[in-house]
Design brief:
Distance between the termini: 21 Å
Strand content: 15-25%
Order of helices and strands: EEHEEHEHHEHEHHHEHEHE
Helix content: 25-40%
Number of strands: 10
Shape: globular
Length: about 325
């Protein structure tokens, strides 16, 4: 579990809770207060995050000589939103099966939210190895074609601006921004805006939650200016698709995504999810349809994950709540 909770998840909400059952089972539950009702109205992205976490749990168990038998939604699925029923039941069975080679990247895995080196392209064989890392039940793909990359960049930038301009989604993100090192330490989840410089800007009143939530303010414009080079420096994209948008494919998408992320990390490639244009709130309908057309998704198909790839220095790890805080106290 100490490895599992390092999984990528939307807005770093870390919504998982673990109920230890007997000596060899865990019930995985969702903290319903940690969902994102405006940016993720159907809990699709939150469920993908659980898929990432369960895959890291499986890999870590194999490293220690156990097979993690995972039963998804053992008491039924929550729809259209998740409820208090378990996300999964996990039973650990002693097994000498071969360890997963991606284990070595768990502690160094990052979602790198920095501008990429535009003078250093991602080679075709490197991209293919990253995509192959996530191969499984769902579709995985990617591109470094300059024309297609430019089209997706334009859509991603449009989606980012829409999420920021929409009051409910912007406010949901702003409320989760931890501005300055003290705020990050006190609440090691949400959107990390730590660092000495950010703390000083907060101290002098240049950056605070109110100004970030005010369209047209200096802080609001600074947010746009910060993300412009991040998105536009993409050297390519990777994605995960499914034939249907179900809770099962959402979990499988998380499994595929974190495996691609781990495979990229082992090759020194940075990955950064750009989920805005995949979100299902009404204001995003235009770019949501456009990215479907760009990736030839039809019918009941869905794009579960999309992220940019490139090279830069890997950042420090995102903060995490200690594992003990995620264990359900059955005696309470």
């Amino acid at each position: 579990l100490a490895y599992a909770i390092l999984a990528p998840n939307p807005h770093n909400r870390q919504p998982w809770q673990f109920e230890l059952v007997g000596q060899d089972e865990i019930l995985v539950r969702v903290d319903l207060e940690r969902r994102l009702p405006h940016t993720d109205p159907f809990d699709r992205q939150i469920t993908i995050g659980f898929g990432c976490m369960l895959e890291l749990l499986r890999i870590a168990a194999a490293e220690q000589g156990y097979r993690a038998e995972i039963t998804a939604f053992p008491e039924g699925e929550g729809a259209p939103r998740l409820d208090d029923r378990p996300i999964a039941r996990v039973k650990f069975v002693p097994d000498r099966a071969e360890a997963d080679p991606l284990f070595s990247a768990i502690l160094t895995r990052r979602s790198t939210k920095e501008p990429y080196d535009t003078a250093r392209p991602v080679a075709a064989d490197t991209l293919a190895a990253v995509i192959a890392g996530g191969a499984g039940a769902l579709g995985t793909g990617g591109t470094t074609d300059p024309a297609q990359t430019a089209r997706i960049v334009d859509l991603a930038w449009t989606g980012f601006q829409i999420e920021l301009a929409t009051d409910l989604t912007r406010r949901e993100s702003v409320d989760l921004m931890r501005i300055g090192n003290r705020a990050v330490t006190e609440n090691p989840d949400g959107i990390d805006m730590g660092g000495i410089q950010m703390g000083l800007l907060k101290m002098v009143g240049f950056v605070d939650h109110e100004s970030l939530d005010t369209p047209g303010s200096t802080a609001y414009k600074a947010g746009l200016d910060m993300y412009d080079p991040i998105i536009h420096s993409a050297q390519g994209f990777v994605w995960v698709t499914a034939d249907a948008n179900t809770r099962q494919t959402q979990l499988e998408a998380g499994q595929a995504w974190v495996r691609m992320n781990l495979a990229a990390q082992q090759r020194g490639v940075c990955v950064h999810p750009l989920s805005q244009i995949l979100q299902e709130f009404p204001e995003m309908a235009g770019p949501y349809q456009s990215i479907r057309e760009e990736l030839s998704i039809t019918g009941e198909g869905v794009i579960h994950m999309l992220g940019r790839v490139g090279y830069t220095k890997f950042p420090k790890p995102s903060p995490r709540w200690p594992l003990q805080s995620k264990l359900i106290d059955q005696s309470a």
